[in-house]
Specification:
The protein is of the alpha/beta class. 47% of the residues lie in helices and 17% in strands. Bound molecules: glycine (GLY).
Length: 372
């Protein structure tokens, strides 16, 4: 039940191994990549408690010793201070240009450790071992690394591809239901942006996947990684098509900023709400049928997910403030907001040609539901 997706970038090609138990391959794969018999792992405190022993045992079976730095769990870790801590620790561990660093955790750890690897000695190789669904289907693949700035999310970073990704789907079993479903927001995104048949399949298999069906989990992670690999191969540095992966993200980033990047709204929850709003906007602009946003919302609702701005607890700013927050997004080009809209399920496209009034009215209506 193991799948392999190959990311075919010239000079930087790598495999993504997906399936229950692929963690056990960490030792043999990494031993084959590096002469050094010692590996440095960057992880977080929660993942360390649950899974670090298994990773270190897997490395040991191939004669690799390891040391780990466990950073605090949570988005606040993606900051200059923790990046400095991680890079100084790697230097103290005498990591050299030929060595391999392991990023072992969710999106926060993958982004931070990947960025540390990108800048350490002008770049060392790293292996992503993603432990959350969101990291397995999105952030561990494609080489976006970085940290947050007080000015915004992910504003400091580099493209640095991993040398290998091990997506062990058995590790998903320790996620809370909320974290699993947040990651599922990114899975749905793939169907919505480019594969209507995958969205059909998710409508039928999503609840089995949620309750632990391993075949369904492997298949969903594999299809998501195939789609991401295909897009990244076409457009590694987001000059064009890669922006399709940002379906739902313009709305999401404004909502995350409005809720202070707090526990009120997880990133994947914001992506799901953002996808529903992007379809709503597409329907209002006459690009897709009215049934499409209804179908998106119905599936998210069936999965027990946040679907609408109304599902976000606490106060929110007004529609104009949300629109202004969208304007601070790093996807703005020449002052114009770039949206990913859709001509139907599986048919997303990129446009800067969206009337602000239409966005404002989608937000005003959603906020009215929030207050009612
Ligand atoms: N998460 C979007 C991307 O990797 O481009």
């Amino acid at each position: 039940m193991t799948a392999t997706v190959h990311v075919d970038l010239p000079g930087r090609a790598y495999d993504i191994l997906i399936g229950p138990g692929v963690l056990e391959e960490a030792g043999s794969r990494i031993a084959a990549m590096s002469r050094r018999k010692h590996v440095c792992i960057i992880t977080d405190e929660n993942v360390a408690k649950l899974h670090l022993g298994a990773l270190q045992a897997a490395l040991q079976t191939s004669g690799l010793t390891s040391d780990a730095l466990a950073l605090p769990a949570g988005e606040a870790t993606k900051c200059w201070a923790e990046l400095e801590r991680a890079t100084e620790w790697l230097l103290a561990q005498k990591v050299e240009r030929d060595d391999v660093v392991i990023a072992f955790g969710g999106g926060v750890i993958g982004d931070l450790a990947g960025f540390a690897a990108a800048i350490l000695r002008r770049g060392v190789r790293f292996v992503q071992i993603p432990t959350s669904l969101l990291a397995q289907v999105d952030s561990s693949v494609g080489g976006k690394t970085g940290i947050n700035s007080p000015s915004g999310k992910n504003l400091i970073g580099a493209f640095h591809q991993p040398s290998l990704v091990l997506a062990d789907t058995a590790l998903l079993g320790t996620l809370t239901q909320r974290d699993f479903l947040a990651g599922y927001g990114e899975v749905v995104k793939y169907g919505l942006l480019g594969d209507a048949a995958f969205f059909d399949w998710l409508e039928k298999q999503g609840s089995a996947m949620r309750t632990g069906d391993m075949d369904a989990r492997v298949r969903a992670v594999t299809r998501s990684c195939e789609m991401k690999a295909d897009i990244v191969q076409r457009d590694e540095t987001e000059q064009g098509d890669r922006a399709l992966l940002n379906l739902g993200h313009t709305f999401c980033h404004a909502l995350e900023a409005a809720t202070g990047y707090s526990d009120r709204l997880l990133h994947g929850e914001g992506v799901a709400i953002g996808c529903a709003l992007a379809f709503e906007l597409s329907a209002r602009l006459g690009l897709c049928s009215q049934e499409d946003p209804s179908r998106v919302r119905a599936h998210l609702r069936d999965m027990g997910m946040k679907v609408d701005i109304a599902d976000i607890p606490g106060d929110l700013p007004d529609a104009q403030t949300l629109l202004d927050l969208m304007g601070q997004d790093k996807k703005v080009q020449d002052g114009k907001l770039r949206f990913i809209l859709a001509r139907g399920i599986g048919e997303a496209f990129i446009t800067s040609d969206v009337p602000h009034d239409a966005v404002l009215s989608v937000l005003q209506d959603a906020l009215a539901r929030h207050q009612s």
